[in-house]
Amino acid sequence: MFKNHFLIGTLVLFLAACQTTQQQSRPDNASNYEKDLVAPQLAGELMLKDRKVFDQPEYGMSLKYIDENFPEDYVTVYIYPIARVSWDDTQEVVSEELQHVMAEIESASKMGKYKNVKPEATKNVAFEAKGKEFVGKKAQFTIQMQNKAEYHSEAYVFISEDKYIKFRLSFPKHTARENTGLDIVKAILPEITVPKESEYMFAIRESHRKKMIEQWMKLIMKSAKSEGS
């Protein structure tokens, strides 16, 4: 059991490290978000304001929505490849990614972007829409800006194909809106279709699968030598 966890953890680190060393020009065989990503232009009272595809394929793309009735609200969706060779255990994978999201927010707070961040709750999320079940995880927290304005914030993580779909929502605490963060997720998520695994990411994952086999064989040989001595 320990050896399996060691290998899985090592591969996640290998793939994450690869993200920071890729060239900035976008490879031709990476996901074509402009062509293949489908997202709603309108979702309830929300309107798609901006689509941004990042140069580095590992960062995917972002969608920004606005509600003219609540101009201070922040509704951003991020779609990006899963930095793993396997994501069969959905709950484990989304839980780990949500921890990364919260760590990023805490780091931003320490760097001075926020005056204070107060975690409130983390829980599983599941709902059905358009004949499909969506399973993910959410975190709720309060953010206090440097000007002392407070926002109720929520983060959601789901999986589709080989990609995460992450929601970051923030509402001023004085805002009396009827719909919750989950209502917004339910309005947008079922309407999103992500590109399938790209040749670019498939090649990266295959490379790391080979590293996994090599490391596994080394561990077996080392164990056999230890038992034989």
Write out key terms for the chains shown.
alpha+beta, 5 helices, single chain, 229 residues, 8-stranded antiparallel sheet, disordered N terminus, 8 strands
Give your account of this protein's structure:
The two termini are 23 Å apart. The protein has 229 residues and is an alpha+beta fold. Residues 1-10 and 19-23 have low confidence and may be disordered. The chain has an 8-stranded antiparallel β-sheet with strand order 1-2-3-4-8-7-6-5. Helix content is 35%, strand content 31%. The protein is built from 5 helices and 8 strands, in the order H-H-E-E-E-E-H-E-E-E-E-H-H.
Helix-strand blueprint:
Blueprint: H1 2-19, H2 33-36, E1 42-43, E2 46-53, E3 61-66, E4 74-81, H3 90-110, E5 116-129, E6 132-144, E7 150-160, E8 163-172, H4 181-188, H5 199-228
Antiparallel strand pairs: 1-2, 2-3, 3-4, 4-8, 5-6, 6-7, 7-8
Helix pairs in contact: 1-5
